[in-house]
Amino acid sequence: MNIVLIGIMGCGKSTIGKLLAKKLHYDFIDADDYLVNKYQMSIPDMFAISEDYFRQKESECLKDFIEKKNTVFAMGGGVIKKEGNAQLLKKMGTVFYLDRPIDHIVNDVDTSGRPLLKDGADKLYALFNERKALYESACDYHLINDEDANKMVEEISKKIP
Ligand code: S3P
Fold this sequence. Notes:
alpha/beta; 14% strand; ATP-binding; ATP binding; Rossmann fold; five-stranded parallel sheet; shikimate kinase activity; 53% helix; aromatic amino acid biosynthesis; binds shikimate-3-phosphate
């Protein structure tokens, strides 16, 4: 039984994922960190080759993730872009979409190391509008994250068997 967190950059996947893993005594995997480790290349360097190159590598990791047990995953914000990934995410575990109001995110998201935000966090509004339907259709549960991280951890814990 795994827990898969999806949502736009800065929505709280890593913060909530770490707290949740601790509470459940699960492992925690940040998909971006896993990718960087596996291919020994930074995310900006992968994007410098092309976004397609990054997406290809990102999707390859999902096959590794399906094999894991008792793990909380914080996925990269764009993982739902590639066709077929939504099914792989569901195979990995129960998928939670953390929907944090963009106005909350733009003020505090760290844009360094996030190539899609190199021109500023305002780009998030456009990315969110492009992707929201994909997040909604890829998830088992759609949760609004507009309070503190511990509240989300409680909500997610209640939904898992
Ligand atoms: C991306 C989100 C990032 C990272 C990459 C692309 C995206 O992950 O995978 O910069 O397309 O939204 P986080 O959502 O963990 O920041």
